Amino acid sequence: MLTKRAKNYLLYIEALIYLAWARFLVVYFPFKQIAPQLGEQMQETSFDNCLGEDVKLKRISKAIELMSTFTLWESKCLDQAIAALKMLERRGIDSTLYLGTAKDKQGRMIAHAWLRSGSLYITGSAVMKEFTTVGRFAKRLKGLER
After folding, report:
1. Which stretch of DSSP H or E encloses residue 139?
2. Rounded to whole angstroms, what are the CA distances from 2 to 11, 56, 61?
3. Were both Cys, which of 31, 61, 99, 111 would link to 122 (CB 3.0–4.6 Å)?
4. Gyration radius of the chain's alpha carbons
């Protein structure tokens, strides 16, 4: 049986692998090729939390946040959202990835991505309210837990 510390290390390694994979996708593929992997376009999953998932969701959120500071590349919001979505998908947990736009102080268009599962925001929640949602991708997986 693995100790809690060993489980955390494995979770951090998983987060790092998914962050690298997500960065690779974002850099080398056009978004129209990535989008189908993110879920149903312009749909949302339920805001209800399933019993017992909160702990998993918070651990994944923490792992993505922590490991994104240790990558050799800049792990941007879209990388983090995709990595967390894939970690949740592996566990059979529904999520919704959001894309938003806004203008910065110089009037330039900027974009942001964040991920929600149930009522909890897994990535990108710190600044999401500053952005207008322009895209949603619902990843429905209930009953597919591995």
Report:
1. strand 132-139
2. 12, 16, 21
3. 61
4. 15
Rounded to whole angstroms, the Cα distance separating 136 from 71 reads: 27
Residue 45 contacts residue 94 (beta carbons within 8 Å): yes
Alpha carbons 117 and 95: distance in angstroms, whole number:
4
Strand order in the sheet with 40-41: 40-41, 132-139, 95-103, 109-117, 120-123
The answer to whether the beta carbons of residues 113 and 99 sit under 8 Å apart is yes
Token digits of residue 124: 């990108």
| Helix (H) or strand (E) segment spanning residue 96 | strand 95-103
Q: Which amino acid appears at position 26 of this protein?
A: V
The per-residue pLDDT for 146 is: 40
Q: What is the pTM of this model?
A: 0.93
Distance CA 124, CA 116 (A): 9
More confident: 5 or 144: 5
Question: What are 83-113's pLDDT values in tens digits?
Answer: 999 999 999 999 999 999 999 999 999 999 9
25 vs 12: CA distance, rounded Å: 20
